[in-house]
Write a structure and sequence with these properties.
The protein is α+β, with helices and mostly antiparallel strands. It has helices at about 10-35, 65-85, 95-100, 130-140, and strands at about 50-55, 85-90, 95, 110-115, 120-125, 145-150, 155, 180, 190-195, 200-205, 210-225, 230-240, 250-260. Helix content is about 20%, strand content about 35%.
Length: about 280
């Protein structure tokens, strides 16, 4: 029997109607849940840097048109300006899409890489996952509470200058696939993002120094074939340490990777393959 098409699959107008319906549903849920979404900002930097990081913007992705990567520079700039200097007060929630809004062509967004159901494509605002990934990476180095996160389920590309554990990124798609964290502390948090021609930068700041130090460790990283398909496997831990003594206070398993490899198997490092 032929599978029935969804209403949103009948063209651009039905798709937009469905999108508006889902956005209204999400906003109504926030209203019922009494979520206080962070909106305020300040140009004055809060005194203490809790975590900072920088990510390479242009990456060589196997099988991806480099123009989509170049367009990402503009998309990150527009979205980053919306987020930069945002203040998340105690009890407030950061919502990626509530701050950025719908990334449309009218707002200046260009076509960039998007990934839907494990397949590559292009659409306006593509590439904003990198901004969400950076923010999530910063948050993981603080006691802030992640309340919404959507991991990529597949290993889509071989490593290229990877410096962070595999799989800790987050997928975002307007508006239901959001990234959110809550300020569950008693001090305000400031989120800063900016960029130059090659790098995307981010900071989390506050009015008090961070009491503990956090770091991420990946273990047991390997590839293994199952029923003719390779999977990438690893475990990612978050380590909480005393800043002065370096004593480990907590070691939390935050992710178990078992990701289907979607790229050419010849690009898998042979030394990282385990027996079937």
């Amino acid at each position: 029997m032929k599978k029935r098409k969804l209403f949103c699959q009948y063209g651009k107008i039905p798709y937009q109607i469905s999108l508006c319906k889902e956005c209204l549903r999400r906003d109504f849920k926030d209203f019922l849940d009494k979520n206080k979404i962070a909106k305020s900002r300040t140009k004055q930097d809060l005194e203490y840097i809790w975590k900072s990081d920088a990510k390479l913007i242009l990456r060589k992705l196997h099988g991806v048109d480099m123009e989509l990567q170049v367009n990402k520079i503009k998309n990150l700039e527009i979205a980053g300006n919306r987020i930069n200097n945002l203040i998340i007060k105690p009890g407030e929630t950061f919502s990626f899409w509530n701050i950025i809004g719908n990334p449309t062509r009218k707002k200046g967004y260009l076509k960039g890489l998007v990934i839907r159901n494990g397949e590559f494509g292009s659409y306006y605002g593509g590439g904003l996952c990198q901004l969400a990934n950076l923010i999530h990476y910063l948050v993981l180095h603080t006691p802030l509470e992640v309340v919404e996160l959507h991991h990529h389920t597949d290993a889509l590309f071989p490593d290229y200058k990877r410096k962070v554990p595999f799989g800790i990124g987050t997928s975002v798609s307007f508006k239901n696939v959001d990234y959110r964290f809550k300020n569950n502390l008693d001090v305000p948090i400031q989120l800063k993002v900016w960029q130059d021609d090659t790098m995307l930068y981010g900071e989390i700041r506050s009015v008090k120094p961070l009491e503990y130090k956090y770091k991420l460790e990946e273990e047991d990283n390997h590839y293994k074939m199952e029923d003719g398909i390779y999977y990438r496997n690893s475990k990612v831990y978050r380590i909480k340490q005393d800043r002065e003594t370096k004593e480990i206070i907590d070691r939390e398993l935050i992710l178990k990777n078992h990701s289907k490899v979607m790229y050419d198997y010849n690009l898998i490092p042979k030394e990282e393959i385990r027996g079937e």
